[in-house]
Amino acid sequence: MTTAGDGTYGFWLAGRPAAGGDSFEVRGSWDGTLVGRVSVPSEEQVEAAVAAAVGAAKEFAATPAHVRAAALDHVAKRLAERAEETARLITAENGKPVKWARGEVARAVSVFRWAAEEARRFNSGEAQRLDTDAGGVGRLALTRRFPRGPVLGIAPFNFPLNLVAHKVAPAIAVGAPIILKPAPATPLSALLLGELLAETSGLPAGAWSVLPVPNDRMPALVQDPRLPVISFTGSDTVGHRIADSVPRKHVTLELGGNAAAVVLADWSSEADLEWAATRIATFANYQGGQSCISVQRVIADASVYDALAERVVAKVGEQVTGDPGDDATDVGPLVSEAAAERVASWVDDAVAKGAKLLTGGAREGASYPPTVLADLPADAILATAEAFGPVLSLHRVNGADEAFAAVNDSRFGLQTGVFTHDLQLAFRAHRELEVGGVVIGDAPSYRADQMPYGGVKDSGTGREGVRFAMDDYTYERVLVLTGLDL
Question: Model's pTM, two decimal places?
Answer without folding.
Answer: 0.96
